[in-house]
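forwarding from the other thread:

> can someone predict this with magnesium ion?

sure thing
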Amino acid sequence: MKMYSEADVDATCLTDRQVTILGYGSQGRAHALNLKDSGFNVVMGLRRDGASWAQAEADGLTVMEPGEAVKNAAIVAFLTPDMVQKSLYGAVVDNIPEGATLLFAHGFAVHFKQIEPRSDLDVVLIAPKGPGGLVRRQYEEGHGVPCLVAVHQDATGNALKLALAYASGIGGARAGVIETTFAEETETDLFGEQAVLCGGATELIVAGFETLVEAGYQPEVAYYEVMHELKLIVDLLHEGGLRKMHKFISDTAAYGDMVSGPRVVDENSRKQMKAVLEDIQDGTFARNWIAENEAGMPEFRRLMKADLEHPIEKVGAELRGRMDWLEE
Ligand code: NAD
Ligand code: MG
């Protein structure tokens, strides 16, 4: 494993040069404000009729339309949703200066060849391992969120140097920047969110809730057990791994964890995890997701509706309404 820190950064490669950021959502806003506070020359490329134009201006940033914003860029960061990066690249590519760097926070568009960058451009990845809000907050507190760095195309010979300067500007080098490839970042990121973080975790919660309610227990009690208390466990894992969790839960909980966990996540679950990974690796998932977007997202909306109409959402909203210390 190769990890870079502040000592490996030469931020002078971006002195007096422009960093253009396309998109002002979760990552875009955090990167833009952190880079500006780090002394970089930041220009936002946003749609004039979009909601974020006024917000970016109110935040003190220079804002132009994407086609204008890229004209003098040393780095163009694509921080829009993955599915709009292809059309956005097509709209601005002719205005991107020769030898500039394209930067991504997730490798999807490049890895799955939605974007096939001009050969004179450097193409890099700086992927913070956390949402934009955290990237901003950690930076303001003098820390940083760790990042991954990858180089897809090194036309100028300076791709890595520029990527690390950018990572330093958003605070990432304070926490460490691990070298990876576009393939590894894209495939592991998709797998993590599908099998464990979002898909796996929510399916586990909902299945646990249904099991208890079907067995005649009160939905309110089930909600506390399988959804509410998950945060306490995740915080322990996040801060200190399995060891810290085991230190803070009861011996009864630890014994139950070790004998029953493998009965739930069993050989079949592992087989399915592998199948999910294979769909990611061979491009099946990407093809389906791109086709779903092109069709106007009918299946996405149907599945989302089913998720949000699940009984756990109703009981959860009621109970959370009584805990005014929770942030919605
Ligand atoms: P987001 O959905 O929060 O924000 C997207 C922004 O892009 C919008 O606010 C808008 O300003 C702009 N935008 C939307 N549609 C557009 C269009 N058609 N044309 C031009 N601009 C448009 O996105 P995000 O979650 O910040 O994701 C940005 C990138 O960062 C993605 O590649 C994502 O995979 C990656 N990433 C996200 C996270 C995360 O936690 N959110 C973490 C790591 C990497
Ligand atoms: Mg789910």
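Residues 23 and 122 are 20 Å apart (CA to CA). thats all i got for now
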